[in-house]
Amino acid sequence: MKKEELFNKIVAENSDRIRRICAYYNPNVHDQQDMCQEVLVNIWKSLDNFRGESAVSTWIYRIAVNTSLQYTGKAYRNMKLLVSADSLHLSNVLDDADLIHKMMEEDQFEILQRELNLLSVVDKALISLMLEELSMKEIAEVIGITESNVKTKIHRIKMQLKNKLKPNHYVSK
């Protein structure tokens, strides 16, 4: 298969994934589009070096996350992780569908958003990949840490979020 055909196939199969990752890291639609274009350029540049040691989707996530972090430049430490209740698998993060339902009823979604944005850059990347339903192994490959480290970090993040989202932590509007 020619490089151009392979590139087109990869983009066709992963365009939604790329757009979601870019949307996690930037609220501005125009910046998201620019980030997506940058991801596509980086995929094209890296295509000859892809050895197939991981799944194509894992490789795409790595490029998309790294490009998103690079795109934000020096502001990456303050980067916002943008989530929406209707399109993400928040139950994976909180392990509690009832809590999510209660949050929506009580209009406390902003608290979750704020807490997510207080996380470190690595923790934000872990959560964004978790929201994409990657396995622990795939997340480890994308981030470049061990699978056991991923499990430990995600467990710690979940516990931190659960503690912050308990009813006694809610603030009425």
In brief, what are we looking at here?
The protein is mainly α and 173 residues long. The chain has 9 helices and no strands.
Keyword list:
single chain; 173 residues; mainly alpha; Rna Polymerase Sigma Factor, Chain: A; Arc Repressor Mutant, subunit A; globular; sigma factor activity; RNA_pol_sigma70_r4_t2; transcription; DNA binding; WH-like_DNA-bd_sf
Write the layout of secondary structure elements.
Layout lengths: L2 H23 L3 H18 L9 H16 L18 H5 L2 H9 L3 H9 L3 H11 L4 H8 L3 H18 L9
Helix pairs in contact: 1-2, 1-3, 2-3, 3-8, 8-9
What does this structure look like?
Belongs to the sigma-70 factor family. ECF subfamily. This is RNA polymerase sigma-70 factor (ECF subfamily). With 173 residues, the chain is an all-alpha fold. The chain folds into two domains: 3-78, Rna Polymerase Sigma Factor, Chain: A; 90-169, Arc Repressor Mutant, subunit A (Orthogonal Bundle). It contains nine helices and no strands. Helix 2 (29-46) crosses helix 3 (56-71).
Question: What's the average pLDDT?
Answer: 80
CATH topology name of the largest domain: Arc Repressor Mutant, subunit A
Helical stretch tally: 9
* Largest pleated sheet: none
Structural class: mainly alpha
> What is the helix/strand order?
HHHHHHHHH
Q: What level of helicity do the residues show?
A: 55-70%
The CATH C-level name of the largest domain is Mainly Alpha
Rg over CA atoms, rounded to whole Å, is 17 Å
The dominant shape is globular
User: If classified by CATH, what would the architecture of the largest domain be?
Assistant: Orthogonal Bundle
Tell me the number of structural domains. Answer: 2
Low-confidence stretches: none
Beta-sheet strand percentage?
under 5%
Compute the separation of the termini in Å: 58 Å
Say how many strands there are: 0
Domain RNA polymerase sigma factor 70 region 4 type: 110-161
Protein name: RNA polymerase sigma-70 factor (ECF subfamily)
GO molecular function, one term: DNA binding
Family: Belongs to the sigma-70 factor family. ECF subfamily.
